[in-house]
Task: structure prediction
Amino acid sequence: MAAGAAGGALLSACGPSAARSVGADGRIIVELWHGQADTGRKAIQTLVDDFNRRQSRIRVDAGGGGVVADAMLQKVTAALAAGSYPDIAYVFGADLARVARSPRVVDLTGTLRGTAYWPQFWGSVRDAVELNGQVRAAPAVLDSLCYVYNRKLFRQAGVPYPKAGWTWDDFVRTARLLTDPRRGTFGTSWPGTGDEDTVWRLWPLVWDLGGEVIAPDGHSIGFKDVGERALGTLARLAADKSVYVDPKPGSEQMHQVFIGGRMGMMATGPWELPDIVDGKVDYDVVPPPTYSGRPCTIAGPDTWTVFDNGPERSRAAVEFLRWLGDPAQDVRWALGGGSLPLSRATAARPEWRRHSARTTGLPVFTAALNTARVRPVHPAYPQISQAVGEAVVAVLLGRSSPAEALRTCAEEADAALLIPR
Result:
C-alpha cells in the first residue's frame, strides 16, 4: 500500500475545531491510542518512530490513551462523550459496531475498499471492518483459534497425536484418555467466566454444524437448530471431568496449567506460542476438530478506528494507517506484536516465512485463515455474547442441560435483536 493522501470525503459531519491539528514543528498531529503493552507497545512505537522519520508533514503521537486494549472501549466511550478523543484508537472487532454508531467515526469506504491492496486481506479481515456495506475501520491485528497439544502427555497416555480432519467425537474421547485425576492432568480446558473469551470458542462448532450467530432475517439467533448439539459436546467433556474450567478472566490459569505440563490440549491462538516455547513444552498445533469434515475456525481481527478531528487530521490518520497496513510494515508489526499477517501478501514475505519455519505450529495458525470466519459486526452482538456465555458456563458447571441452556439463551438473545438500534 503506497502511502499517500487519502482520497474521497472522509465524513460528512463536521469535526471539532482543528486548532490542535498542527504542532510546533508545523506537522499535522495524529493522536494514536494503541492499547498495547510490553512487546506490542515496543513494536508499534518502533513503527511510529519510523513513519515520523520518513516524512515531514505528519507526526503520529503514540503516547496517548493510558489504558490497555481491554479497557479501550470504556476509554473511547468516555472520550466521545466528553468531546475530546484521539484520531485513531485500537478497538476490538467485537466492539466496532457499538463504537461505529458515533457520528465521529470516519467512514473509510472510499479510502480503503477498491484499492489494489484491499483484495489481499484475508476474507475474515475484510468482514471484521465492514458494517452495513461500509468500511468503518482499518484492520489492526489478526489471530486464529487452533489446538495446541502436549506431545509428552500424549506419549505417556499412549494416545496417538491428533491430525487435521479429526472429529469432535475424537476430541472428546482423546480428552477423556488424557485425563488422570491421580496425576492431576486434564484433557482440555474452557474459560468459565462467561465473557467473550468463553463465547468465541463456541462459534466454530456452530458454524461447522451449519448455524449462524444471527439468522438471515436479523430478528433472531441463527443457531437454535444446532446449538444444543454444540453445547452437548461441552456437556460430554464436563460429564467426563476432562475439561479444566478456568474461573478467572483472561484464561491465565488454564494457560499456566497447560504450560505446567498438566493439560493435554488447549484451544488458543498464536499469541500463546512464545510462553509455551519459554516453558519448554514439547508441543505441536492442529486445526480444530470438525463435525462435518469441513475445516472451520474463528479469527479475531481487531481494528484501528478513525475519529473525526477535522478533515486535515482525518486524512493524515488514514495516510498513516495505509502505510502501517502495507506488507512491508505489517510483517514487522506481526513479528513484533505476536499476531498473524493481515494479508496473503504479508504471509508470502520472506521475513514471515523464515519466522514461521522457525516456530512450531505457526504455519497451522496461518493456514487456518483460509477458512476462518469472524463474529458478526452487529450492535446487538454484546447482548448475544452475554447470553451465550451464561449458557456455556451453565453447561460446563452442570447447572443446566444443553437444551435448557439454549432455550434461555435464545429468549435473551432474540429479545436483544428485537430492540431498535
